[in-house]
Design a protein that fits this description.
The chain contains 7 helices and 11 strands. The chain is an alpha/beta fold. It has 2 domains: 170 residues, Rossmann fold, CATH 3.40.50; 63 residues, S-adenosyl-L-methionine-dependent methyltransferases.
Amino acid sequence: MTKIYSEFARVYHEMYQNIFDYKKEFEFYHKILKENFSTSILEIGCGSGNLAQYFLETDYDYVGLDLSQEMLNIAKEVEPKAKFIQADMRDLKFQEKFDAVIISGRSFTYLTTNEDVHNTLISIYKVLEKEGILIFDNFNAEKIISYKKKHFKQKSEYNSRKYTRISVKTPNLKDGWTENWEATYYIEEKAKKTKIFKDKSILRSFTKDELKLFLSLHNFEIVKLIDQDIIFTIIARKKIN
Ligand SMILES: C[S@@+](CC[C@H](N)C(=O)[O-])C[C@H]1O[C@@H](n2cnc3c(N)ncnc32)[C@H](O)[C@@H]1O
């Protein structure tokens, strides 16, 4: 588990308040869910629970799921009324079924091997109602993969704390379109800047064709594919047979 989702989960939670626009993200999902008459939702990779309040306010029957207990501890503070489950999307064991499964905030990119993707799609198929839908977003490999080293800096402010993340991405490519991501996190408080920690992870991007094939092998049909610059979102329906 990367440090940003475990011992430094609070840093993720605070930094991302200004990196993602969670209200806009909810509205995006809400429109798709309404179009598909979905009312019971499983959000996988719910992290620190930033979407939960919107789903509850809008009367969805909502469950959030994440691998990281530390992220879920924050989610429970953020939205105490929501139900959260600690589990691995590659091995979902519960019986409850949902009209829609959302894998939010690019959490699918942590499925770095073909076996991870295979196991996740099997798990999701089991927890979806008949003709239920799967919604998930991903980095588009055709737009982001490069053989060159990439450096970038992100800044985010939360209350009086200023966070900076310096990232270096290098190709990994052992399994699919993967990249090694090394990030160093700094905090500036009361005019004093301190290094907090260094983190390492592997992220996978996909081409659209790779995901089309994975989905068809797992008996899903693509309803819609939405391009959003370096990201694309897929809406796929569980086929019966
Ligand atoms: C980029 S964060 C997104 C969190 C949240 N959706 C947001 O937008 O703030 C990715 C999340 O995926 C979770 N995750 C990674 N691998 C997972 C797995 N195999 N099963 C369930 N959750 C996983 C991480 O713990 C983390 O909370």
